[in-house]
Write a structure and sequence with these properties.
The complex is a heterodimer of chains A (about 210) and B (about 200).
Chain A: H1 28-43, H2 48-56, H3 60-65, H4 68-82, H5 88-95, E1 127-130, E2 149-160, H6 162-165, E3 173-182, H7 183-187, E4 194-201, E5 205-207
Helix pairs in contact in A: 1-4, 2-4
Chain B: H1 13-27, H2 35-46, H3 49-61, H4 63-71, H5 73-79, E1 90-94, E2 99-104, H6 113-116, H7 121-124, H8 126-131, H9 136-142, E3 152-157, E4 163-167, H10 179-183, H11 188-192
Parallel strand pairs in B: 1-4, 2-3
Helix pairs in contact in B: 3-4, 4-5
Amino acid sequence: MDGIHDLGGMQGFGRVDHSPAEPAFPHRWQAVARALLLVVAGAVEASGGEFRHSIERMEPGHYLTSSYYEHWLTAAATLAVEHGLMTRTELEARAGGRFPLSGPVLAPPVGDAGPDVGEPRFGPGDRIRVRERHPPGHTRCPGYVRGKAGVVVRVDGIHSVPDVEAHTAARRREPTYSVRFDAADLWQDSQRGVSVHVDLWDSYLERS
Amino acid sequence: MSMEGHHPAPISPVEQRVAALEELLTERGLVPEGFVEEITRRYESEIGPMNGAKVVARAWVDPEFKERLLADGTASIAELGFGGPEGDHMVVVENTEAVHNVVVCTLCSCYPWPVLGLPPAWYKDPPYRARMVREPRALLAEMGCRLPDDADIRVWDSSAEVRYLVLPQRPRGTEGMTETELAGLVTRDSMIGVARL
């Protein structure tokens, strides 16, 4: 989905609030949120794709104004409700107030996962173009490279396609590639000597 | 007489939500005894940038290890005993005078947990994720990372299964140091690529 999570290249955010070191869990609730996410993801057997998509479906204002630990909490609660472990009413009664969950899945059910791609179609040095797609479900193809031309620099083995695993128990497996893009080409500006490498599944790509 | 200081801090809405979810999951028998403490211990003392620092220091003192590390990050890091979730497909990228590497995850918060631990808040927040792929030279300068003007910058967006570790350059004047002393010089930021040593 073209969601708020797809942040690469967005403007207007200002400075990075950098700290050189910080504890893993500055507050105890953050450790609990982490633990509960592991509990829920295990109980409902969520794939990485389904988990990530449950964060991506957060209401954009909530996403931008909450910490990543709150994203994990929201994902855990959303998956728990969607898989019938509890209801939103129960959560709100216990919390004594509103419990914002992520929005509904927009993608239609995946009927057929499609055939695996067992052999890489591309190798290092091959020129490719990223397909211009806007799927309503989960994808790991960032918006800022869609339609752009790049060069394969590495082939990384065969992996389950997130676009499929987020929406069904079936799996399709494809090679992934690290693809180099020239930053000046991505952003149509004058920066020099900057390349951006994005790791992409086979079906995101076509020969250029 | 003031009771200030005797009241517990008020519980915030997000803490109330965490407590609500924890109660409901516990009632359903889904939260193992001591699980939160176990998670806390694991992320606070077992995994973290001290692991990555050992990998870097080994690469600085052992050229054959470095060669293996750059060719097969996962297997070489496993030689030092590090691996597991978010570290199953490791690629190590080497900084030189002419090339600077930096890692980001624009879509979420992907990060090499076994060698760096959980990502810092700023790595997961929008400004870093939005800007590092668009204006890395300006953002690195803003974060205090000085590069030669003619250095090439390679940004790695960890959008699939690979997780990246930057191999920083060994600082000058460290020839006499032991591997353990060298590991003490290696910072988390230098292994993300937002700092040089």
